[in-house]
Amino acid sequence: MKKDCISTVDPIESWLRRNVPTRTKIRIDKGSLFETNIQPLSNISHLISRLNRRDSSGGAKMSWDDQHNCRIQERKSCSRSGGFGLTWAGSGPAVNAIKQILGVASRRARTHSTILPVKNVTSATGRVNARELYQALSTDQIWPAFQPLVDFHHGKIIGFEVLARWTHPVRGAISPADFIPVAEAAGHIDLLTERIVSSACRQAGVWGDDFSLAFNISAMQFKDPGLFSWLARIIGATCFPLNRIEIEVTESALIEHTDVTLATMASMRSVGMRLALDDFGTGFASLSRLHSFPFDKIKIDCSFVRSLVSDSGSRRIVASVVGLGQNLGLTVVAEGVETQQQAHILKRMGCDVAQGWLFGKPLPAKQAGILFAREEQTDGTALLPVVPQFQRIHQLEALYQTAPIGLCLLGADLVHLSVNDRFAAMLKLTPEQMIGKRVQEFLPLQEADRIEAILKNALAGEGTGPLEFQSPSGGVYLVINERVDDDAGDTVGISVTAIDITQKKAFEGLLLHHEDQFRQSLALGPSILWEADETGKLIDISPTEERDVLEVEERILAWQDRIHPDDQIRVRTEWLAHLGSPDPFKTRFRLRLPNGACRWVSSKALPSEPTQSRGRRWYGVINDISEQVALEELITKLSRFEEEPYFVCAPEYAVAHCRLHEPAGS
Description:
The chain is α+β, with helices and mostly antiparallel strands. 39% of the residues lie in helices and 22% in strands.
């Protein structure tokens, strides 16, 4: 046998050594015997997958004898035909299965056709067998479905996960849970993958260029060193860009054949293909493996998302996975999102991408293309940055310690979980003396019982409002107790905020003293101050001694009621007509006193400029002008007496008139 012909046999020999499913003696080319004990019988499917991807331009002949010996003659393009033979020692199901595998391989080498099933594998439910699956793969019964991947930040479709669907002409839809395991066990997984990938890339290639396609690749397929080149040929034939392809890998693919898997992933990344770890949290991948393998995405398993609202444990797991992904710089995808509440929680946690029935079921290519075209899409490069959880934690920690207020967090059991220095200083303690303890452990019993009762009310959702607290250090603090609930509404503790109002209280006391002094001065003075808003409504008026006990609204109504009935309409009309003017307002009217007498008063007001927080204000003053009005009336009467010589007037006015007309010096 020529050396160049033997070289075509060597890979098969090496491959058999690694993959023969039972302890079997094999003789090759009349050479020495070797034994192999690699994998159990179940690994036959992987053996088939590898043979299915072997390319051969030559031919092969196979013959069997009565003792179940098999001889394969393989011809290659060389001067003399060469061949190799395999002699099987023993018989039984395992040996017969290998014979069938090699028989299929020889037929594939001759015809370049897809292999037939080695055995008629049946699904666990009994609904699907390998022969039916193979027949379906040769028709349009099995087709690609496209489920949208939606960016949480913009609500736009940024890609699709492509899923295999089987529509049986009689039984209707057959679940992937039934036919995918059969495809793997019977060696049809490569044929199924090729059909789905090729069809999906061809159909989606006309939709545009700002989305990606994600495909699931079996862990079994990742054992093959030729996986990347095989996939690249399939996708390349469709002209769909490799840098818009994502490959989803389950955690089981990381357990075995690590070197082969890493090499395959490196090849995929080298051409721009992205890698996603599927169903994270349900397998056996360790953090070291997650760090070692070049993943771009983590997909949270739908079982955690489904129980997100009802199970606090699931929420913690999801939050941890989101934080892990952010810390490692990986995109986090949540599978199985079905409700708005789930989406709200995931978005608040910082999850990047959502997938599930809330955003779209797996659709045929035509419907998926229409859905994608209906939206203004984004290629994902303009996404708003998400602050990783570890950065937010450090940011909050910095704020916690440097904030000019006291902060602490208590658990639902009223144990102090965190305390900043300012809060501890209120009680003349350190944070270490408070953390992990209840108030009874560091406060006098009576005071501790009072505070714990307040905390229990807050825990029960009974808002007590801000409370003033006199600390042992002598300061006065405004304390706010707020119950803390997670996204599903479960109570996780109490947040306590304490604001130092010692100086504020001192200023308030001083202000109250000055205000009281001012009020007393107003009560003793002749003027009455008032304030109105931009609509002309009185909002304040200064009290008098006899009405100081009234509230502001009562006081305003009392003042308005005291205006003389004959003046009320006139004054109101003048006031409303003047509101739009920037000029001062001035009027006079009669005001009834508590004893029933009337006094004339003058009311003047100046407008203020409006601010951002409020509109224009009018500030006015009321003064008693009764004496002035009397004098004005007197002058008016005297003027009339001068114009009417025969005017008869009271004696006092006559005397005044005579004096006004006396000659100078008399």
